[in-house]
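Case study B.
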Amino acid sequence: MRITNCTFRNNKGECGGGLYNYSSSPTVTNCIFSDNTASLYGGGVYNDQVNSATEFTNCVFYDNKAEYYGGGMVNEDAWPTIINCTFSQNSTISEGGGGLHNYLSSSNPDIKNCIFWGNTAGNGVGHQIENYQSQPVPTISYCDIQDCNTGGVWDANLGTNVAGNIDADPCFAAPDANNYHLRYDSPCIDKGDPDFAGSNETDIDGEPRVINGRVDMGADEFYWSLADFNLDEIVNFIDYAMFANAWQTSLGDPDYNDIYDLADNNTIDYNDLALFCEQWLWQAAWTQPLGAMMMGQGWSQPMSQSRIQSLGLTEGLYPSALPKQPQTQITEPDIEEIIKWLEELWLTQDELRKMISPAEWQEFIERVKIRY
Ligand SMILES: [Ca+2]
Ligand SMILES: [Ca+2]
Ligand SMILES: [Ca+2]
Ligand SMILES: [Ca+2]
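Model:
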């Protein structure tokens, strides 16, 4: 069974408030488990007698609660595969395993590229991960786990430290507002398994799973569009106006700036325009609530310039953005489409007309057309 792009919220049960898997092997991908409660064990999910074919990938678990064990998840005689999941703010009331509780010696999940941060166990035992009576020994690689490495020593109670694990604040965008996207300065960016092969997957936002050559830890892959020239977290008419002013300039010209050279050849031309068009109306995932992009909901207001400056971001700095693409030839139908798009843009965007005079716009369109 496949469960994809689903939200499990505000559900209740004795075991497995959100989901109870018994002797089954679902693949659960790009799902959100939040505010589920279990009156006994496993606030979010309870896995009972499942093997490694049961996979949780790109899922977020937050604000799930259990009375006894496993706020986020319980594994009983279960060894699922848990990849690129984020566990935060899950809790137990009276026993241990705020994020994850593994029960019985067979319960050795394979945990990779995950974040466990800010979960709490009511009895103080295993806030992030608890292995009952030290019997289970999960394998853990390329994860960010709170307090896993206190004083530079791996906490062996968590399981086997395979490789690449860190103990550092993941810098979520706004965890108090349940926004568990990675911020631009997160230590989890580009720190997942370097051999990770899930290149056809998407992250919790529907953005490519691997950006900048290496997968991130957690359910979110960080992406900042190179076409967001003014760094206000959306690609819109303002970026377009900046781009238009540099049109057909080359290295050395007064109006040339390398940031517009998206297809890298030191000239601002059709190839750059084509790449710009692909990014039109891109919005920064971290400015939106978790799941908003997945649900196709609207986008919130962009950050103010003062906010951008307060973050220390200046023009020309693109943390972990997509690398520039090599120059490629675009075909004539593409240019025809672009001109059509430009004309529609001019007719429909009032803001654009305020930023560029009709004469400047006409000149720009004529120059595009001449070359076409
Ligand atoms: Ca990455
Ligand atoms: Ca993302
Ligand atoms: Ca912008
Ligand atoms: Ca170029």
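The pocket of calcium ion (ligand 1) is lined by residues 189-190, 211-212, 214-216, 221 (CB under 6 Å). The remaining cases will be described in the next quarterly update.
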